[in-house]
Amino acid sequence: MDAIILQILNGLDKGSAYALIALGLTLIFGTLGVVNFAHGALFMIGAFCAVTLSRLLSLSHEVAIPGQVDFLGNPATRDVPYVYDIFGEAAGAAIIDWSVPLAILLAIPVMIAVGVIMERGLIKHFYKRPHADQILVTFGLAIVLQEIIKYYYGANPIPAPAPQAFVGSFDFGALIGFEPGTIIYPYWRLVYFAFAVVIIGAVFAFLQFTTFGMVVRAGMADRETVGLLGINIDKRFTIMFGLAAAVAGLAGVMYAPITSPNYHMGMDFLVLSFVVVVVGGMGSLPGAVLAGFLLGILESFASMREVLEIVPGLNQIIIYLVAIVILLTRPRGLMGRKGVMED
């Protein structure tokens, strides 16, 4: 039982990332009808927002240490971050320590701007083009973005540590009645799952309970009729593209302490996230979230040593096997609208 619970926790952790990226992909496909292969790059840019803020907050200058000299007899110095000068040493150290969560404040405007520029500058010209054209142009854009990141940040992963308060592991087993030390799970992965639930809930609440969200949902169902009512649906869809980019970026920011950001991490998640979208149902937001968590849990169980001894490499292909079964038996996905992908 403890092994099962641990694998469920691992699956929820992976599923959180899949669900957040797939949610943004589905928002874009449902509103604009665009297959956006650059969405994984937005996840990567979000992770590098955390890296960038961490580097900016760590900028320092040399300060002489009173009464001390080095081995050459020169005054000894130490590096003091500029944030210490602005906020004081204690507050400055706390700000540096919490740089990853604080990067959310940087990532939101950056990702919305990137999304709007991407949509207005390039993708709007491909709305009426075949999906194959959309895939080619957005895939090319993803490659350009990751090469830009590679040029400025290098090819090696860059650590972005979690705050010290969340370093270490939580005795989850003791919480639910098992022997202490039975189920140990990293704090930050639990934080990431909770963060994903909050973001997903916020997106659904925004679409369900705001006037803007209701207009967007109406536009997803019948764009032409909404336009005839005098509503500038294109403007609203552009804003939704920016919000979808922000969701992907926030997923990347908070994932940075789990996997050190690198220039190809977007591509690593992109393919899996598209599989999640297909399994959940193209254009179905609940389907994307449900499929993300289900496939994350399946992948986690397929990674167990006992399973790999029977079917080596199953964890690498389980998601694709599920996608094949779904496409053969229910082409529209688990929660897709009838007629979608069934022609």
Automatic annotation (TrEMBL):
<comment type="similarity">
    <text>Belongs to the binding-protein-dependent transport system permease family. LivHM subfamily.</text>
</comment>
<dbReference type="InterPro" id="IPR052157">
    <property type="entry name" value="BCAA_transport_permease"/>
</dbReference>
<feature type="transmembrane region" description="Helical">
    <location>
        <begin position="16"/>
        <end position="35"/>
    </location>
</feature>
<feature type="transmembrane region" description="Helical">
    <location>
        <begin position="42"/>
        <end position="61"/>
    </location>
</feature>
<dbReference type="GO" id="GO:0005886">
    <property type="term" value="C:plasma membrane"/>
</dbReference>
<feature type="transmembrane region" description="Helical">
    <location>
        <begin position="307"/>
        <end position="328"/>
    </location>
</feature>
<keyword id="KW-1003">Cell membrane</keyword>
<dbReference type="GO" id="GO:0022857">
    <property type="term" value="F:transmembrane transporter activity"/>
</dbReference>
<keyword id="KW-0472">Membrane</keyword>
<dbReference type="InterPro" id="IPR001851">
    <property type="entry name" value="ABC_transp_permease"/>
</dbReference>
<feature type="transmembrane region" description="Helical">
    <location>
        <begin position="190"/>
        <end position="216"/>
    </location>
</feature>
<protein>
    <submittedName>
        <fullName>Amino acid/amide ABC transporter membrane protein 1, HAAT family</fullName>
    </submittedName>
</protein>
<feature type="transmembrane region" description="Helical">
    <location>
        <begin position="237"/>
        <end position="258"/>
    </location>
</feature>
<dbReference type="GO" id="GO:0006865">
    <property type="term" value="P:amino acid transport"/>
</dbReference>
<keyword id="KW-1133">Transmembrane helix</keyword>
<dbReference type="Pfam" id="PF02653">
    <property type="entry name" value="BPD_transp_2"/>
</dbReference>
<feature type="transmembrane region" description="Helical">
    <location>
        <begin position="135"/>
        <end position="153"/>
    </location>
</feature>
<keyword id="KW-0029">Amino-acid transport</keyword>
<keyword id="KW-0812">Transmembrane</keyword>
<keyword id="KW-0813">Transport</keyword>
<feature type="transmembrane region" description="Helical">
    <location>
        <begin position="102"/>
        <end position="123"/>
    </location>
</feature>
<feature type="transmembrane region" description="Helical">
    <location>
        <begin position="270"/>
        <end position="295"/>
    </location>
</feature>
